[in-house]
Every structure is written in C-alpha cells, then in structure tokens.
Amino acid sequence: MDCLFCSIIKGEIPSKKVYEDDVCYAFLDINPQAPVHCLVVPKEHIESADKITEENAPIIAHIFSVIPKIAKIAGLTVGFRIVKGYRVVTNVGEHGCQSVKHLHFHILAGKQLSDRMA
Ligand code: AMP
Ligand code: ZN
Predict the structure, then answer these.
(1) Diameter of the chain measured on Cα atoms
(2) 41: phi > 0 → left, psi -120 to 50 → alpha, else beta; which?
(3) Please, which residues have CB within 8 angstroms of residue 17's CB and are 6 or more apart in sequence?
(4) pTM of the prediction?
(5) What residue's CA is closest to ligand 1, atom 13?
(6) Each residue's pLDDT tens digit, 61-118
(7) Cα 54 to middle of ligand 1, angstroms
(8) Domains of the chain (ranges plus CATH)?
(9) Which residues are in the CB-under-5-Å shell of ion ligand 2?
(10) pLDDT digits 0-9 by tens, 19-54
C-alpha cells in the first residue's frame, strides 16, 4: 500500500522525529501552521478517525496518554516551552480537509490560536 505516513514510519522518507514508541510516531509537520506543529500517527495504518473501532481504540487511548509528553518534546525540539496550552486536531475526509489518508493528530502550539474551528 502506498501511504506517505507508513513510509515515514518505516524511515523510507525522512522526517524530523519528535517521539516514538511501539504504538505511535511523532514528527514535525513539513509545512508548520504554528510555531510548534507536530503530527502524531499510529504505527498501524488506520485511514482516519472515522475508522476508529472498539478493537483499535486502545491505540487511540495510548496516543492521547502520550500527547502531553509529545507536546512538551515538540516544543523543546523547536526551542519553545509550551506553557499556555495547545490544540489537538484531526481532519477527517474531504470536508474535513484530510490530505493524508493515515490517521494523524496535529499538535499546534506556540502562539494564540484562532478561537474559530471552521
Ligand atoms: P491533513 O491535511 O490533516 O491531512 O494533514 C496532513 C499534514 O501532513 C499537513 O499539515 C502537511 O503539511 C503534512 N505533511 C505532508 N507531507 C509531509 C511530510 N513529508 N513530512 C511531514 N509532514 C508532512
Ligand atoms: Zn499508512
């Protein structure tokens, strides 16, 4: 299967690693939309949040359990100490503007983010 994020996880395409464990991989977004912009992906290919099930939910639970740690490391990676919070976003499908069809959570921080979601 041809998947950009699966290739990044395998190391076939370079990325700026922020964090890795058995379940997930986190790296800096190539086109940052905030001073800190990191992506967290499950190592198992899941197409989007729309494909979360009872069976794969433990993967998602794990990702959220490490997001506080990943956010701090991502900040430090780009020389920023996150103290005033951050945003976690996942885009789903066409109307959600999902461009890569491998579930990923954006962590955005380092400035006052918009109070609008859409
Ligand atoms: P989305 O639009 O929610 O699917 O998010 C996909 C994200 O992947 C965008 O923010 C892109 O900037 C990012 N992206 C695309 N290619 C790469 C890459 N090779 N390395 C890091 N981030 C990437
Ligand atoms: Zn994939």
Answers:
(1) 40
(2) beta
(3) 25, 26, 27
(4) 0.98
(5) 29
(6) 999 999 999 999 999 999 999 999 999 999 999 999 999 999 999 999 999 999 999 9
(7) 27
(8) 4-109 (3.30.428.10)
(9) 3, 5-6, 45, 102
(10) 999 999 999 999 999 999 999 999 999 999 999 999
